[in-house]
Design goal:
The complex is a heterodimer of chains A (351) and B (309). Chain A has 351 residues and is of the alpha/beta class. Helices cover 29% and strands 21% of the residues of chain A. The chains are: A alpha/beta (351), B mainly alpha (309). At the A-B interface, helix 2, strand 6, helix 3, helix 5 and helix 6 of A face helix 9 and helix 10 of B.
Chain lengths: 351, 309
């Protein structure tokens, strides 16, 4: 079935069974050193201890404000930048170690970038760009080109018209289809979509989202879908992870997280979405100001300076990411029994 | 193709197959490609085309010089020295040894072009290699390579060329070597900065994700994008190289008499500048015209390559 030599078949080559997470991340940390005026060395805590699992066949949405570490997390997952510490397991095998070296991991994981123009080589035709991956993995040239054309057709671009075009000769939506085709050329199991539809017109965005859902079913894919658009995330995701300042603040099934959010930050994010109902418009911005500087994050809960529920304890204790319901984990003292927060539920409720 | 269908396919972003199936079969128009676009724009630039024609003429003259010179460029006559331009026998006059100027200028174009263009070509290959490597790999490799290159920038290029030529000794080969050493750092610097700009593009990341080796990425993904700007810069160096080469010959470090070369001719004719200034200036005019032509052509090339989206 597969044209890539010794590529794992997503339907057959499943090591750990359906219950084993496809990707399991724990304690992921990435600090970028910066030098401030005066020569003092400091670090930007871009990703500061992130834990999550990606289950087989699901779509995990990752949301958060700009600068919360979404894109850094994406690059860490793809190995485009090196992690400072933390563990990443792919189907139960530690990535970067002997059982799962980066090379074999990367074949099974691909990424679609936000900027459809910058992610295609301007000097290569669409077809060449798609065929590049299979070619460097040992597929003979002719076969790689045939596969590229088949993929173009699959993403809705007639090969006869588009295969020989250059990126600047096609529209943004068409380019993003090409990027999706390229990401599928190596027959991956996991596709990471980093703001993949954010730069598209709304009508085109809807088409591309539907295409993504079709492809997922057809090829048995798992998606990590990074976006700042909560509506899009709600549409496509099975589970949602909310990030704030390099940490996970809430993770759970998308219906739960987006309809009954437990973390005040998620609530504020949802409330800041413009409403179409004129009677239901919010005048005041619920999230005032910018997120704090990730060079010097606030002590305790990172959200407490902007939080409506903040109490003294929030500035002292760093809230752990604990389950408040099955599958639903929140990092907020106000939701965690025995945390010392006045709004915290009683111990009995938690049991 | 009817208008409503076109509009419909546009609105649907060419994405929905149903709409496209309804459209009449569109003949596949092969894309011109990047260099096709550049060529297309270049032929519409009259200045670049004039400069290109000038270069072509000089190159043709240089190629066929031994067969088309009106007189023997080496044969002098003590009686017919320093004839003026417009002379019946010597159309562009004769030099201080009574040799025909036009024949010597034609034959001289060979050496002048050769030692003008060759160092730039060699430096283009070496400099691009160093620059792309430094730019793509970055880190310590970049620091070591580029700081070494910076040492060469400490000397003015004329001084460096003279010093190297002086150390190596006179001769065509040595002056080509010394001029190459002058241009490698300059081209490497440009190649490095262009490559550094491209290294951070998403398509390089995408190529890394496909598992390609660094060498494959440099060859397939980087080279095509950097070679254009570097080439433009290199063509602009040809004029500098021609002038420097002439300068070396003028100083006696390059070509040796009686071989005709424009720089050397300027030198030997300078004694005659009060007797026959027009003839004495002719080799200089040739150097000037050819280097201007190379400069204008490289300007046109740069303008033609500025294609975005």
């Amino acid at each position: 079935m597969s044209v890539i030599p010794d590529a794992p078949d997503p339907f057959v080559h499943d090591r750990g069974g359906p219950a084993q997470p496809l990707l399991s991340v724990s304690g992921l940390i990435k600090h970028f050193p910066v030098r401030k005026a005066g020569g003092k060395k400091q670090v930007v805590r871009a990703v500061d201890g992130v834990d999550f699992d990606v289950l087989k066949g699901e779509t995990l949405g990752i949301v958060g404000e700009s600068g919360c570490g979404k894109s850094t997390t994406a690059k860490l997952l793809m190995g485009l930048i090196e992690r400072d510490s933390g563990q990443m397991l792919y189907d139960g095998q530690a990535i970067g170690e002997r059982a799962m070296p980066w090379r074999s991991y990367r074949r099974q994981v691909q990424m679609v970038f936000q900027d459809s123009y910058a992610s295609l080589n301007p000097r290569m035709t669409v077809e060449q760009s798609i065929a590049f991956g299979p070619k460097v993995n040992g597929v003979p040239g002719r076969e790689a080109v045939e596969r590229a054309r088949a993929l173009l057709a699959r993403v809705g671009l007639e090969p006869k018209r588009f295969a020989g075009r250059y990126p600047h000769e096609i529209s943004g939506g068409q380019r993003q289809r090409v990027n999706i085709a390229r990401s599928l050329a190596l027959e991956p199991r996991l596709v990471l979509l980093d703001e993949a539809v954010s730069a598209l017109d709304k009508s085109v965005e809807a088409q591309v989202l539907n295409l993504l859902l079709d492809l997922k079913a057809e090829f048995g894919l798992t998606y990590i879908f990074i976006s700042h658009d909560l509506n899009v995330v709600r549409f496509i995701s099975d589970r949602v992870m909310v990030m704030y300042l390099g940490r996970v603040s809430e993770i759970g099934p998308s219906d739960t997280v987006l309809d009954a959010p437990a973390h005040p930050y998620t609530e504020a994010l949802l409330a800041s979405m413009p409403s179409l109902d004129p009677d239901n418009r919010t005048e005041a911005a619920l999230l005032a100001g910018d997120p704090p500087n990730p060079i010097d994050p606030p002590p305790g809960c990172r959200f407490h300076p902007r939080c409506a529920l903040a109490e003294g304890v929030c500035g002292e204790t760093d809230p752990p990411l604990d389950a408040i319901r099955p599958l639903h984990r929140v990092a907020c003292l106000a939701r965690q029994p025995g945390s010392g927060h006045s709004a915290a539920p009683g111990e009995a409720l938690a049991a | 193709m009817t208008a409503p269908i076109t509009a419909a396919s546009l609105a649907l972003d060419g994405g929905v197959l149903a709409a496209e199936d309804a459209a009449p079969e569109v003949a596949f128009v092969p894309s011109r490609g990047f260099w096709g676009h550049v060529g297309h724009r270049l032929v519409r630039d009259p200045v670049a085309m004039a400069a290109g024609a000038m270069i072509l003429i000089v190159v043709l003259i240089a190629l066929f010089a031994p067969w088309i010179t009106p007189m023997d460029p080496y044969k002098g006559s003590m009686l017919r020295r320093l004839r003026h331009v417009g002379d019946a026998t010597y159309w562009l006059g004769s030099d201080e040894l009574g040799r025909d100027m036009i024949s010597r200028l034609m034959l001289g174009s060979r050496l002048s072009l050769f030692i003008g263009v060759t160092p730039v070509l060699i430096a283009f290959v070496i400099g691009s290699g160093i620059g792309i490597l430094a730019g793509y790999v970055g880190g310590w490799t970049n620091t070591i390579l580029m700081r070494t290159i910076d040492v060469f920038f400490a000397f003015p290029s004329v001084l460096l060329a003279i010093a190297l030529s002086g150390a190596l000794g006179a001769g065509i080969f040595n002056s080509i070597v010394s001029l190459t050493c002058v241009f490698v750092p300059q081209i490497a610097r440009v190649a490095e900065s262009v490559t550094t700009g491209i290294r951070r593009r998403d398509y390089i990341d995408a190529a890394k994700l496909s598992g390609a080796s660094a060498l494959t990425i440099m060859r397939v993904q980087v080279l095509g994008n950097v070679v254009g700007p570097i080439f433009v810069y290199a063509t602009s160096l040809i004029s500098v190289s021609m002038i420097l080469a002439s300068g070396l010959s003028f100083l006696g470090l390059g070509v040796r008499p009686p071989e005709p070369e424009w720089g050397l001719m300027l030198n030997t004719l300078r004694t005659a500048i009060y007797v026959n200034p027009v003839v004495a200036a002719l080799p200089g005019v040739c150097i000037f015209v050819v280097s201007i032509a190379f400069n204008l052509f490289s300007d046109g090339l740069r303008a033609a390559m500025e294609i975005r989206q």
